[in-house]
Specification:
With 151 residues, the protein is mainly α. The protein has five helices and two strands. Helix 1 packs across helix 5 and helix 2 crosses helix 5. The radius of gyration is 15 Å and the shape is globular.
C-alpha cells in the first residue's frame, strides 16, 4: 500500500525516479497485494497498482537513496541487512543511504504503521491514511515541496 500511495503522489516529481517495496521476510514473496489493500486503494482512486511481493535484497542498499521501515522491528532487520551489505562492500557508501522509520514523517516521531493484515477492512483505511500522511510529510520535509498534493 505504501508504494502505491507514494507512487500516486509523486508520479511526475523530478526528484523521484524509482519506487519499489519489499518485505524483510519471505512470507508472501511473489503474491499480489491483499484484496483489502486493493479495495482500499481503489476507493481512493488508485486503480492501476500492480505488484508482486519480494524480499529485501542487499543490492537495495545501493540501488535506493531512501529505504523506509514500517515499524521498529523491520527497521532493526533492515539495519542488520544494511550492515551486512556495508561489510561486503568495504563500507561502500552505506552511510549515504537513508534508512528510516516511515512514520517519522507523519507528524508523530516514531509512529509505526498499523498492520491491518489480521484485522478488519477499517484497519486498511487507517493504514491508507497513515501512508498518505507519511508520504506527504516526506515530500514536504525531504524534497521541499509545500504545494498542495492531492490524496
Amino acid at each position: 500500500m505504501a508504494e502505491a500511495v507514494f507512487r500516486s503522489l509523486t508520479t511526475s516529481h523530478p526528484c523521484v525516479a524509482r519506487i519499489d517495496s519489499a518485505g524483510t521476510g519471505a512470507y508472501h514473496a511473489g503474491d499480489s497485494p491483499d484484496p483489502r489493500t486493493m479495495s482500499t486503494l481503489e476507493d481512493h482512486g488508485i486503480a492501476d497498482y500492480r505488484h508482486g511481493a519480494r524480499i529485501v535484497q542487499l543490492s537495495d542498499f545501493s540501488d535506493f537513496d531512501y529505504i523506509f521501515a514500517m515499524d521498529r522491528d523491520n527497521l532493526r532487520d533492515l539495519q542488520r541487512s544494511r550492515d551486512r551489505w556495508a561489510a561486503k562492500n568495504g563500507g561502500g557508501n552505506a552511510a549515504t543511504r537513508q534508512l528510516m522509520l516511515f512514520g517519522d514523517f507523519g507528524g508523530r516521531k516514531g509512529e509505526e504503521v498499523v498492520d491491518p493484515y489480521y484485522g478488519r477492512q477499517d484497519g486498511f483505511e487507517v493504514a491508507y491514511e497513515q501512508m498518505v500522511r507519511f508520504s506527504k510529510g516526506f515530500i514536504s520535509q525531504v524534497l521541499g515541496e509545500e504545494e498542495e498534493i492531492s490524496s
